[in-house]
Amino acid sequence: MAAPRSLQFDTLSLHAGQRPDPVTGARATPIYFTTSFVFRDADHAAALFNMERGGHVYSRISNPTNAVLEERVAALEGGVGAIATASGQAALHLAIATIAAAGSHIVASRALYGGSHNLLSYTLPRFGIETTFVNPRDLAAWKGAIRPNTKLLFGETLGNPGLDVLDISSVAAIAHAAKLPLLVDATFTTPYLLKPFDHGADLVYHSATKFLGGHGVAIGGVLVDGGTFDWEASGKFPELTEPYAGFHGMDFQEESTVAAFLLRARREGLRDFGACMSPATAFQILQGIETLPLRMHKHVENTRKVIAFLGKEAAVESIAYPELPSHPDHALAKRLLPRGCGAVFGFNLKGDRAAGRRFIEALRIFSHLANVGDAKSLVIHPASTTHFRMSDAALAEAGIGPGTIRLSIGLEDPEDLIEDLARALRAAKG
Amino acid sequence: MELRIANDAAYAYTGGKTLDANLPAVVFIHGGEQDHSVWALQSRYLAHHGYAVLAVDLPGHGKSGGAPLASIEDMAGWIVALLDAAKVNAAALIGHSMGSLVALECAARNPQRVSRIALLGTAFPMRVSPDLLQATKTRESDAHGMINAWSHSGYAHYPSNPGPGFWVIGGNLRLMQRQKPGVLHADFAACDGYKTGFERAAQVKCPALFLLGARDAMTPARAGRDLARAVPNSTVVTLGSAGHNLMGEKPDEVLEALVEFLRAS
Ligand SMILES: Cc1ncc(COP(=O)(O)O)c(C=O)c1O
After folding, report:
1. Partners of residue A404 on adjacent β-strands
2. Which of A106, A327, B120, B254 has a Cα at 20 to 30 A from B76?
3. Fold of A292-428
4. Is the CB of A216 inside a 6 Å radius of any atom of ligand 1?
């Protein structure tokens, strides 16, 4: 008996969640630009509202174009479903708001994207949700920071700015021993490089703005439920295991053994906070995902070539990329990220802030802006932009030097990128 | 709701309503390595449309306690015990895959307790290839992968289940993975070991609906039709592009076929 094949990653990137439109024959995913959807009759309407039937009612809650994106990302991640959100930040907020409330506590890696750090550190405390930040490499710190009111452990697959590799299976084991789920921001890796659910994560989200969309055209996020976490056995999540007065007294865990989290997130957080994605955005991100395997392969290939070049340059003091033996997570990266460690990394230029500025201004192909994960190569000098108010000492604390440059390597010819960087390195010397 | 059957906790989802045993009753019986949640939409709909609904977790599955039962006959006996525990005199039984054999067996042996049966993704004999049966015992995760690949006919489902944004294929796999170790083999061995399907089929007096997937690779529609021919009062509905996971792939069509069948009494 031959074992049946299930569709592989490259095929799912093109097909999961979508088939030719049965009415029009459209092969591409149509953009369903409609706020609302007609009911067949009064019974159909009531059944949709009461979740006796699946289907679309209003595009804040669900939309056919968004559903294709959601199902596709869930398929690529190996999850049970997903929710498309207005941005990566909205996805993080939706994840937290679904299972945490005033009085809750989160344990998070301190190596986070600045926006996530702001949300946890300054904004959520205003709503009674506190976070303890830990060094993601310090497993004892993760464990030690858990309190009776902790609801969630949270980290990035590749941390900011040093690309700390999250030891997902070890942190997940600590979370699960405490009957808590692990949420992972997988923006920098995408499911092409790493599937966090395979290693024990329970919830995953992406800033789809970055590599999933891949062309720097649309802001969006996707929150994926792995369907692995047993909310009932945990006993810490009445939001999912007891009747919810805000939705027909529904007990989400009873309704769905594997997707209680996602049901509540859609029926509460997406409905009430309203940070939904536009179907036009969903279409653009889907276009990106069609070529995700090709692009990620080339992003990584180009990154390796650029790093090999920089490594030989006298003006470069150090490079933080986990494939390099000098990186503290080199061994872990080899195990977890055999296809590569992404296309965003930082390096330290010898010299002061002015040298960094000269470097940036001499580049002709790299675009100087605040984003990553575009098809085009990008660069930023934190000391003169995002972190310019900080003293050198405060910068060092955040793992950033006066000459730290962050690159996001695009899909151009690698020799052109290398020539551009060589010119800028000469200029940096002054 | 929580019941007790033979000293074990027995769970049945009642569709989001409190069970009213005075209403016509419908019992949903899931297939191997699954639980009540495969029927979420259909069971919830019927509970809100005049039926007393019990979507069970068979022993050892989902939220029910105890060990998985070793035979289809034992499972049919358990369903009668469930009706007793819930104080339901007679019910329509709706079963999928392994659960369809349970419904068949139960209807043949207890004509006074079973008003009609709907069998989805069914076949007799429900033979399991020796390779797969071995895998269910020694390589559960490989077996899950094979079963999941065989259970779906497509990679895009509308309106998806339980709603838009859910990846049906991933949800089905995870539901299997969430069952306890040993359940898969017990279930598949019970299906493989059931020998009296045609005899029981001939004894069924009540109306029977056979709801089959034209692209079912686990229980081919042809084998389902063979079984249907053995039941005196049977109707066959074949859903075009559906695989074995009919409720996941075609939730609306399954619901509509069930509503029509239950109404026709
Ligand atoms: C790792 C990471 N997570 C989350 C975000 C936030 O995503 P968005 O800008 O789509 O809200 C970003 C954006 O830079 C990011 O780099």
Report:
1. A348
2. B254
3. Aspartate Aminotransferase, domain 1 (3.90.1150)
4. no
Q: What is the mean pLDDT of residues A138-145?
A: 98
- Give the ligand 1 atom nearest the CA of A220: 10
Contacts of residue A68 in chain B, CB cutoff 8 Å? 156
Rounded CA separation A282/B155 (Å): 19
On average, the pLDDT of chain A sits at 96
Q: Which sign, positive or negative, has the C-alpha torsion A190, A95, A197, B160?
A: negative
Cross-chain residue pair B170–A75, CB shorter than 8 Å: yes
Residue A1 has pLDDT above 60, yes or no: no
Residues in A touching B217 (Cβ below 8 Å): 4
Domains of chain B (ranges; CATH) run: 2-263 (3.40.50.1820)
- Domain A9-288's class? alpha beta
Chain A residues with CB-CB distance to B146 below 8 A:
3-4
With a 6 A CB cut-off, is A408 part of the ligand 1 pocket?
Answer: no
Please tell me if the CB atom of residue A185 comes closer than 6 angstroms to any atom of ligand 1.
Answer: yes
In this predicted model, what pLDDT tens digit does every residue of A388-407 receive, in sequence order? Answer: 887 888 888 778 888 999 99
Q: Which tokens hold the place of B188?
A: 């598949």
Cβ atoms A361, A354 nearer than 8 A: no
ipTM above 0.95, yes or no: yes
Closest atom of ligand 1 to A371 CA is 14
Amino acid at A167: D
> Has residue B117 got a pLDDT over 80?
yes
Q: Could you give the CA distance from residue B258 to residue B263 in angstroms, rounded to a whole number?
A: 8
Chain segment B20-75, per-residue pLDDT in tens: 999 999 999 999 999 999 999 999 999 999 999 999 999 999 999 999 999 999 99
**Interval B140-161 mean pLDDT:** 95
What residues of chain A lie within 8 A of the CB of B13, using their CB? 254
- For a pocket test of ligand 1, which of A188, A210, A217 has the largest count of ligand atoms closer than 8 A to its C-beta? A210
Q: State the distance from the centre of ligand 1 to the C-alpha of A128, rounded, in angstroms.
A: 23
Domain ranges (residues) in chain A = 9-288, 292-428
CB within 8 Å of chain B, chain A residues 49-108 = 50-56, 62-64, 66-68, 70-71, 74-75, 78-84
